[in-house]
Amino acid sequence: MTESEKIDPYEDLPLKKWLRTDRLPFIFCSGCTIGTIIQSVATVFEKEGYSRKEIVVVSGIGCSGRSSGYFRTGTFHSTHGRALTVATGIKVANPKLKVVVLSGDGDLSSIGGNHLIHAARRNIDITVVEMNNYIYGMTGGQAAPTTPPHAFSQTTPHGNIDPQWNLIPLVAYSGATFLARWTSFHIHRTRETLAKALSHKGFAFVEIVFPCPTEFGHLNRLETPVEMMKKMLDVCEVSVEKGPWEAEIDWTRRIVLGEFMAEEKPEYTQQLEDLRIRIQAKEAEETEEAKETEGKEEIEPNDFSYEPLSFGYPTTKEQSITEMIVAGSGGQGIISFARLLTKATFDSEGRYCSQSQNYGPEARGGLAYCQILIADEPVPFPQVTEPNVLVLLSSRALDRFEKIIPKVKTVFYDPESITIDHSIAPNTTFYTVEATRIAIEVIEARQVANIIMLGALTAITEVVGEEAMKETVAARWPRYKDLNLKAFDEGTAIGKKLKEGEED
Ligand code: SF4
Fold this sequence. Notes:
The chain is an alpha/beta fold. It has 15 helices and 17 strands. The protein is globular and about 75 Å long. The relative contact order is 0.07. It binds iron/sulfur cluster (SF4). Residues 28-29, 32, 34, 63, 133, 137-138, 212-215 line the site of iron/sulfur cluster.
């Protein structure tokens, strides 16, 4: 296989275990070092011997908010300012997980400012990697609470008059127990500190100052990324003994770097667990007393274990993990297809499902595809690595996934816009489902082609029971219930016919 024929050009990347190579290269601007920070975090995960199942990376919105999407671990790209609320929920739900927040200065300290101080106040065991570029980069260069005095931004064209927030003392005062600051140039020091922060039991806050040449640099007349990096390093001072109150950050004069605090204090989830045990013991005591006096039944204490829902549909045939890609063009209902399938499977079968979606900036017409995993075990990250089912609904989808067809066990496609020479994949089973033609000629609604395909797939793969799938389709858009059910029935009829043809 030549280099150009390789499906994954990052096959030999040492951090492939931790990074989603299907998303590389990084989208960040030239000269931006967010990618370097992401790689440092991944390197620490690897070096410190963590497993992917125990790590969850959460981010907010902004350039650095894109970070979580690059990890092949549990990830959550949350809304603006809410990275710490989501991270807190995850940690409380499962304290065994190592929860890492990667987010920007503006997101964490402005929109998410309240969450930052209260997460620190609780000393919850979360590691925060705050990437400080002094500005809102992705939204066009607006001033943040961390923008230095007199600095130019889109919202401070005559220089910033707001005082700058120094997040290290702020978070220290709020109650954090591990505090450090480095720059994206000090990679080795950053890695050493991150390893300590991850093993620290409590709220760990590591600030990484990095240059944003596109916005802060451009608006403050620092013309090149190198010039910016040099200016930053010129004023850096590494400290081994300063506390958080002395961690000055003045981009023109002095930026103090180092580890400023590592303290032991009661951690939040541990306190929560202690509280739960106390309450349960009290409840058990009260129940015992009540039983003695009134003969009441004993109440089972809540063990907080997770039970998947089961709506009592008949279970379909045993399957190992299903790795599916559903691809088409924007506007064809690709995401709806994936959501319906995973919802029906999760609700009726109690199996673990994940669904992640990719689509371009085009609202309609561009490539859109979803990756679906259905398994009996928890799904550690939502990336399909060895697809066994491929559903293609447009020629764009074929262009993108044609190369992997010979590796896939089952391929569904719509012949309306796709022609496939089946001889390219002798071990693959192809199902040609005339979804668009039926949608137009029989249902008279082109937009239900996805539901027809879903019906055919349900009948053929039996990955989910037909009744469960049908009920989910009916409930999703009550206004179009009849139309969708008609389409689904057409699809299952086609699927059954194709299957019968195989068996004959
Ligand atoms: S805008 Fe700034 S922070 Fe964002 S990717 Fe570009 S250089 Fe990096």
